[in-house]
## 1
Amino acid sequence: MSGGSTDLHLYNTLTRSKETFVPIDPNNVRMYVCGPTVYDFAHIGNARPAIVFDVLYRLLRHVYGPDHVTYARNITDVDDKINARAARDFPDLPVRDAIARVTETTTEQYHQDVAALGCLPPDIEPRATGHIAEMIALIETLIANGHAYEAEGHVLFDVRSWQGAGDGLEYGKLSRRSLDDMIAGARVEVAPYKRDPMDFVLWKPSTEEHPGWDSPWGNGRPGWHIECSAMAGKHLGTEFDIHGGGIDLVFPHHENEVAQSRCAHGTGSMARLWMHNGFLQVEGRKMSKSEGNFITINELLRTETFGARKWPGEVLRLAMLMTHYKEPIDFSIRRLEEAEGALDSMYRKLDDRALAAGGSPDPRVLAALANDLNTPEAIRWLRADIADGADGEAQLAAIGATASILGLLQSTTTAWFDGKKQSAGIDSDVVAEQIEARLSLIAEKNWGEADRIRDTLLQQGIQLKDGKDPETGARITTWEVRQ
Ligand code: AMP
Ligand code: ZN
């Protein structure tokens, strides 16, 4: 352990309280986060769990050592939305090929998106299609021990079969809902073969237009929830430390994962700690295609959809982390501008000096993160450190270590400002020509024309800065992008 004295206090959805985090095995701290269903570009709401749990992963690696943490984030590549997309986009291909095209392309896009947001790749990225045998085995166990039943080609989990020790039904403990609440609140698929309306599908039959696998219940495919139970169990064991995802997953997805895993393995928990990020909405409204405020990560980073410009990935990352992970986020251009301004001033102050590895992070930042991942406070300290102390080598190393736990400031100052020029769609050669022309006009004392060039550039968001070469005394002009 590199900094083993840091006690982490993390909020547990299961107990609805902040708890001191005690890993089952400090030499292998295990975390599972539900990953994307790969049928389309991920949206900026999906970016939130990727970023939040990346910070937690970085913090765990710092505290327990990089070799002592296992982070698994799955790819859901079996899902009816994928099938529908494949049929729509590739109607002429055989079903399996069409599905493969959709899932491979979308997975690749997701990797590019989260890399651009500064997220480390997880240690394990299991795919549902690679774990069908494990899912079938899990379902067989559940049938054998009386927690699941077969009906008309489906296999269903029997929610009423899971009685706790003495205090009634165990199903519903994570989301704290009774069966009556669930039935009232959910769009329950009523099917005559269900024993209880809340019984959920573990396996369902496939037809020609769906991918199918042979199973003891005929050709079929798994339900969504069993996918995560099988992948988490295989890679992290029957009980592990942290399970994460967005708050919308608590019910029914995580409730069902817990039911399946605990009933199959006979364990007291699936994960010890359940963590959920709050939801993100855009300019005051739930993000939705029909509202016209639906933004993909790709659009934000690579097209001029939001605010008529592209945004660097690090801006989105910081914009997310300025809010505590449990709070809702109201996403806006203003928020992005605020994050960008903060990054500009930090990078400017660092002035291309290397943030050497090997320093010790600011203990105030660590304390903030150890307090249920208080990233807004951690960022305030990081900014303060840079504002008043980015001088000596030791300070720079400390800032480097601090920034790397947050996954921020991973570029150089030059790369940051160059990236912004690119995002702004500015052609550096053209700007250089304009600067040359202006310097010639100044040499000719044609101030009016020189100023006109300066003002035109400023209207395009390009600010010129005049200075002198310290050696030759010659006038030089540099530029940066202002928003
Ligand atoms: P999905 O592909 O919809 O299953 O979502 C992938 C992850 O993104 C899950 O952890 C969701 O909880 C999370 N998520 C989806 N929409 C939002 C949102 N608007 N804000 C925050 N997290 C979200
Ligand atoms: Zn899951």
## 2
Amino acid sequence: MTNNHTELLRRHKSNPILTAADWPYPVHSVFNPGATLLADGTTLLLCRVEDRRGLSHLCAARSANGVDGWRIDPHPTMAADPEHFPEEIWGLEDPRITYVPELSEYVIVYTAFTRDGPGVALATTVDFHEFKRHGIVMSPEDKDATLLPHRIDGRWALIHRPVSSPRAHMWVSYSSDLTHWGGHKLMMEARLGGWWDANKVGLSPPPIETPRGWLVMYHGVRQTAAGAIYRLGLALFNLKNPEVCLKRGSQWIFGPEESYELHGDVGNVVFPCGYTVLPDGDSIRFYYGAADTSIALATASISAMLDWLEQDG
Ligand code: BMA
């Protein structure tokens, strides 16, 4: 057992890097952004923005250096359209972005807040200005989903987190056309008892493809007498069979500590939905929602996370 979790992810000194006060139109809170690097090197965050009705939409923020100088779209970039997509009646949340070379498109998998709870919806875009919706791909209650960036043995793979109350585990499902999904496999179970990741786990940002396997950062939800604590852990999965877990860390690596993570609409939450990898191929920036209120940044090294898993997994 090691106790070096404080070194694996380092908070940026200007955290939180984006708050509601930065928005060009009135909003309540901004959090849980998907992230990607555009072809010209611009960092794009697709932020979850909650308005004062309590409903969320998605809004793009772009920055040349990924830290500051954000250019935020003057209007909601992707707003709910319940007239045409009734499953979006209560908004869009928690997008994960995957660039898919085969399609030359970005695939955005997000939570559509339906009348019956959260479901998984999929949309595609080339420019983050226009979006093609493909509708619900996993019926409620299901969330924390992302698409892997390429087919595996001819099939697309979608990681998601259905709820079988009170427990919730990560699953992977397969499709040949991004529309019809099957071959459902349990990927990773929540632990039991007193563990930090007992009863409820979910994918956080999209998996990181490494020569050793898919490196997955996931959240564990610890229920306490004072409410839930959202912390992050690591696991490694087989590249050809993503339902096969090769390693799973025993300890969490990152949890709420700073005031902007401890206090907010939902205190004690760190919730990354995206990352960008720097040109060295190893340095990684996680963009995370802090206390369901603001957006923060933490940096890490992919090889250091893999090495940690070798020891702790
Ligand atoms: C999860 C998701 C996240 C949220 C977190 C903490 O279930 O709904 O959007 O950040 O709860 O409230």
